[in-house]
Amino acid sequence: MSDPWSELENKLIIEDYFHMLEDELMGQTYNKAQHRRDLTPRLNNRSKASIEIKHQNISAALIDLGIPYIDGYKPMKNYQQKLPMLIMDFLRNNNRLFDLFSRDTEFTPNINPIVELLNCLEEPPKGLLSGSISSPKPATQTTIWNTPSFNYVAQEAQNSALGASGEEFVIEYERKRLNAIGMDNYISRIEQISETQGPWAGYDIRSIDKSKRDMFIEVKTTKYGKETPFYLTSNEKTFSENNNSNYYLYRLFNFRVKPGLFVLNGNITQHFQLKPIVYKCFDP
User: What local confidence, expressed as pLDDT, does residue 147 receive?
Assistant: First the structure.
């Protein structure tokens, strides 16, 4: 087993991680392998695997802090308790990054037409089908993370233009899917419910499956990675519970250059842990 990471080593890899993340959010190319090679001598020549795991730990901590993470560094939750504090220390000293995160949440990319649209389908994150994505580590009473004043993942979820773009993408995906299985005559039955009925319907798009049964599709879109959390209204949750066999989550991710998609069928609480974060207060 390798020695525990020192505070200096953590600071060095956090700094390098954010250099890569900044390039990614600004649409600039960078080489992860070259970053690792340049960083290795400064990290007491730690192994490739050790550095990779630490990158994944940083991704997991960023998700818990409500901050975007680097695509390709799959979040790994078993991080050191001090890691979020070191991340926030770095960000306070480089607060221009907060402006970058905020601007990026409001940005809606123009997705070029994808010829092989059906090829964007991927498997769901591995943690889902065997249970649910693990929840964030609870902070102890002595833990002070000094978290950012705004949750950038939640802010992106409020980007209505991004949501509309994701729904348009899924409608085109459904057209291609029905065409591919010889059900062209059912394409006209695809309906953007969020537009024709409004958000209170509990889902976004009505389509049809290969058995000619209705599909009630909820679309959740992010420009960030596959493991990025998403937000669900009480109405959406109830609808998924009441329409178990016909309910589908279409999760669009990396919706920036080359979108990916995974699909889950059934009551959404069977696939994810749900954490209440907003409460309505009223006189009893």
Answer: 54
Q: Is the pLDDT of residue 146 over 70?
A: no
CA distance 11 to 89: 9
Question: What is the model's pTM?
Answer: 0.89
Three-class SS string for 116-144? CHHHHECCCCHHHHCCCCCCCCCCCCCCC
For the stretch 27-43, what's the b/e string if a residue is b when 16 or more beta carbons lie within 10 angstroms of its beta carbon? eeeeeeeebbeebeeeb
Residue 113 φ/ψ, nearest 5 degrees: -55, 135
Q: Which amino acid is at 204?
A: D
The residue extents of the domains of the chain are 1-106, 112-284
Distances (CA, A) of 156 to 45, 102, 122, 259: 38, 8, 22, 16
Average pLDDT (144-173) is 86
